[in-house]
Amino acid sequence: AAAAVLATGACSGDGATASPSGTWHSLVPLPAEVAYRGAGFTIGRDTAIAAPPEAGRAAGHLAAAVRRATGWTPRIGGEGEIRLELTGERPGASGGAGSSADGPIVGDPGAEAYELTVDRDGARVRAGTPVGLFRGVQTLAQLLPRRGATLPGVRIADRPRFAWRGAMLDVARHFFTVEEVERYVDLLAAYKINVLHLHLSDDQGWRLAVAGRPELTAVGGATEVGGGPGGSYTEQDYRRIVAHARERYVEIVPEIEMPGHTNAALAADPALSCDGRRRRPYTGIDVGFSALCVGRPAVDRFLADVIATMARLTPGPYLHIGGDEVETLTQEQYNDLIERAQELVGAAGKRMVGWQEVGGARLAPGSVSQYWQTGRTPDDVHRAVRRGAKLIMSPASRVYLDMKYDEETRLGLEWAGLIEIEDAYGWDPAELVDGVGDDRVLGVEAPLWTETAETMDDLEYLAFPRLPAVAEVAWTPQEARDFGDFAARLAGHGPRWSELGVDFHRSPAVTWP
Ligand code: TNX
């Protein structure tokens, strides 16, 4: 059973405290503007949710949240005390790079704006788009008590700071089932994260079926780190994940790694190697040693098939082609392959995303570079920006969810440092790279590499509570953020995670109830 909408409201003594603004609540991410005032509204057995047809998904999620808090399920109809309203204006309808019928999921942040008010007569969420209503419903669900029916009086006006608020899950080092990925999506959606980037291939595993190339999953998918059985998604499995995510206004961005991190592909198809020899499956955790044979016709056909498959399965505009940590090619060979991939992605009507090393190649202005290497600002990032590319900020020392919290953490690596919740929270995406302010930053993403994570509990333990911290970095205006206030708001989420069976790290900076 999936987690669906988190209700974390504070009025039942479950841990939220007064914030500096003199209010009590557990809202994460903090809305841009929030003012508690006046009497609240108590949901009754005959309270109904009024919603237009386009807001069906938001209304359904809200009804489920009310049922969890109160035990009864509100009717969804044309009239009601809880109203979801689509306004005439559709901010962002002209901008953005989305393709869904009800507007882009990753587009103009204005398209996700909403207003929420609760007074003694009821609750109302207003937005220009269905996605805005859905984000507003997540806020309303967090205002509900864990058990109970009373919402506080409040006025909220909210919109995200960044368009791309992502999480990445590595299903290559260890495989995770459709149900596990769906559960992760549910947890993301509750924090208004709108992208799940799936790392679908690496040295240790190939996880996505490609038509006409059954050996990629049959051979490349049959193992994982440590030698376990691995696994892979059929096209139908993958479509289920995409549909489940869209239902929650989360975009799935697929990543197939190239030209490096490709041992699993080389084990499946010897024609992709320069020596024509089949590689043995790899179950260790080293990086950098594998690469496709750039320039070989067999490799060009492989690129075309793989990118066509990703494009066909992806309703959204972004395809990720990896591009990191190649140690066995010349810069010319590397650039050649990235530029070919970029052309194929463009010809499929999509935009290419790659790890920051892709900035070594000639990027198209619509391409996106994912910054990860902390400690210096590398030339490849500056080159990408000069070519007009935007950046996704994933500084390893802040947002790599696979790093240990402290020396005692039973899971995780530590090459980028130990990351407690203060570290994950306390940075500004517009201060990371000289000359790169809000306008060049597409957004923020928290990767979860899974060399050391094998189970859903492992994923949850590494992601919580750091993922909600990153969600607030990506959503909330910088000037409204304060770590002490965040920690106080976050406390109320602990009991809810426990109730949902979400394993989490009890970060010492938070006074968990
Ligand atoms: C670096 S950062 C990687 C991954 C590893 C990760 C482990 C990046 C683009 N690549 O291949 O899984 O470190 O923390």
TrEMBL record:
It comes from the Bacteria. Keywords: Glycosidase, Hydrolase, Signal. Coiled coil: none annotated. Residues 162-477 form the Glycoside hydrolase family 20 catalytic domain. It is an enzyme of class 3 (hydrolase). The keyword Signal applies. The active site is at residue 325. Belongs to the glycosyl hydrolase 20 family. This is beta-N-acetylhexosaminidase. It comes from Planobispora takensis. The lineage of its organism: Bacteria, Bacillati, Actinomycetota, Actinomycetes, Streptosporangiales.
